[in-house]
């Protein structure tokens, strides 16, 4: 599976799932295929609830709520127990802490998610670190001990995983070294996951920071994707990417969602209404699409819910109502059936862009 930042993901077509993974048995291939199909079944996408403790601290600070383990548990419990999300959410990505937290009545979150027919995912990377020999570029750490961690996560209920590598567009970046290093890291991560029956989400994220135009982003994205497929052959024909192109956040001219070119459909997705509108436009595009184009959203699903909650127990239902509304909208959008009502939600249509974003 290809995860494109906090934006979209694409899944393989039913008829083109893995048939040439030399290190996997027929049973393993079928297990991976079944998991992938379940996560992004028609009308479904991913809730990315894998924010690190540090990232949650920033979110909670915006609503004047203390960043404690209990508050993190309470907030995520509201999301996971919301009504009517089964037709909208196929999978939920957890942070390590969340995988072992429980509901008020003592049920582990993974058990709750599985009982509701959704697939449990886990963030397995350990964050970005500086890449020596580059001009401020990064690689992602976490390969050490990943084999053992994946084995344990599988036992504890995780069936898919996420690993994020970051590349930034400037006049001199991304460098060949950064592209190759991050592709190598993603390939090693993906192979380890598959050995344990875990579907890997491969995420070489091209950050939106900068003043580059759409053409520059398209060129960089295609270059990164091409090298990633070379480094991990299963991506070549078995798993593929929907190239996500966007101009930099400092560019003021963005393509219209009604533009007929698929590469121009998703402009800046920094506000949740635009995220839904553009996802919908991509699914209405008359071009041939061998992939299901769906969503993997964190802030776009949570921003209004978080504001509605405000850290107050009495606002639990309001929080869930906002989350359900966003989930339903994006479920419609990934089927090309979304119609905007103009409702900006509790977050007021505020920008979701975070410069130099890290988890």
UniProtKB/TrEMBL annotation:
The keyword Lyase applies. Keywords: Glycolysis, Lyase. Its EC number is 4.1.2.13. Pathway: Carbohydrate degradation; glycolysis; D-glyceraldehyde 3-phosphate and glycerone phosphate from D-glucose: step 4/4. The keyword Lyase applies. Pfam families: Glycolytic. It is an enzyme of class 4 (lyase). GO terms for molecular function: fructose-bisphosphate aldolase activity. It comes from the Eukaryota. GO terms for biological process: glycolytic process. Belongs to the class I fructose-bisphosphate aldolase family. PANTHER family: FRUCTOSE-BISPHOSPHATE ALDOLASE. NCBIfam families: FrucBisAld_I. This is fructose-bisphosphate aldolase. The lineage of its organism: Eukaryota, Metazoa, Chordata, Craniata, Vertebrata.
């Amino acid at each position: 599976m290809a995860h494109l930042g906090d934006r979209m993901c694409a899944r393989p077509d039913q008829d083109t799932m893995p048939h040439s993974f030399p290190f996997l048995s027929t049973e393993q291939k079928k297990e991976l295929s079944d998991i992938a199909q379940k996560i992004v079944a028609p009308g479904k996408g991913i809730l990315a609830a894998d924010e690190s403790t540090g990232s949650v601290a920033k979110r909670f600070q915006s609503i004047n709520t203390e960043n404690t383990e209990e508050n993190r548990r309470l907030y995520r419990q509201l999301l996971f127990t919301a009504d009517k999300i089964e037709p909208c959410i196929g999978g939920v990505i957890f942070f390590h802490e969340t995988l072992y937290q429980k509901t008020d009545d003592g049920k582990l979150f993974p058990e709750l998610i599985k009982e509701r027919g959704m697939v449990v995912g886990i963030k397995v990377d350990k964050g970005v670190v500086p890449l020596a020999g580059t001009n401020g570029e990064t690689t992602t750490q976490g390969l050490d001990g990943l084999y053992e961690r994946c084995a344990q996560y599988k036992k504890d209920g995780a069936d898919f995983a996420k690993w994020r590598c970051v590349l930034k567009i400037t006049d001199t970046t991304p460098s060949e070294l950064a592209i190759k290093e991050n592709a190598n890291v993603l390939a090693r991560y993906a192979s380890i996951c598959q050995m344990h029956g875990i579907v890997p989400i491969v995420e070489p994220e091209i950050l939106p920071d900068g003043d580059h135009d759409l053409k520059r982003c398209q060129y960089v994205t295609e270059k990164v994707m091409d090298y990633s497929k070379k480094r991990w052959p299963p991506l070549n024909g078995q798993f593929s990417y929907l190239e996500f192109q966007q101009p930099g956040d400092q560019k003021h001219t963005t393509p219209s969602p009604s533009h007929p070119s698929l590469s121009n459909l998703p402009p800046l997705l920094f506000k949740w209404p635009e995220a839904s509108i553009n996802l919908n436009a991509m699914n209405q595009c008359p071009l041939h699409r061998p992939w299901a184009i769906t969503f993997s959203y964190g802030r776009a699903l949570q921003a209004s819910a978080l504001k509605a909650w405000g850290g107050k127990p009495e606002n639990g239902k309001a929080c869930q109502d906002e989350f359900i509304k966003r989930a339903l909208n994006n479920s419609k959008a990934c089927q090309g059936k979304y119609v905007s009502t103009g409702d900006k939600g509790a977050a007021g249509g505020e920008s979701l862009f975070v410069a130099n974003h890290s988890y």
